[in-house]
Amino acid sequence: MTATTTSTGHLIGYGRTSTVEQEAGLEAQRRDLEAAGCQKVFTERASSVGDRPVLARALEYVREGDTLVVTKIDRLARSTIHLWEIVRDLNDKGVNLRVLSLGARRSTRASPPIGLSSTPSLDICPV
Questions:
Q1: Is 7 a known active-site residue?
Q2: CATH class of the structural domain 11-105+114-124
Q3: What's the confidence (pLDDT) of residue 49?
Q4: Domain residue limits, the chain
């Protein structure tokens, strides 16, 4: 198994910013997604409330066994209901979802427990 594949599929990244002024944020997402092993990364500049054609292409692109990777949940979904719909659709296709950062903060006074990173991540796998 290589860094760009899971046991049966590939790691596919998706990044989004709302405006052109957030170019550095989009590049940071791309860097983090590539560092996580994503072989293909879809990126777009689009408001979360408008049409997101690149997200639609990414969701169409992923195949059974693949893992869709995002840096944070708010880059993917506009609401909890929207997230649930995306997870449901990915689950129906047999696609995993990995969120690299949940945005939780840890105290800087102590190191994280052994085996835990300083920014917790979340993996959602089909049942």
A1: no
A2: alpha beta
A3: 75
A4: 11-105+114-124
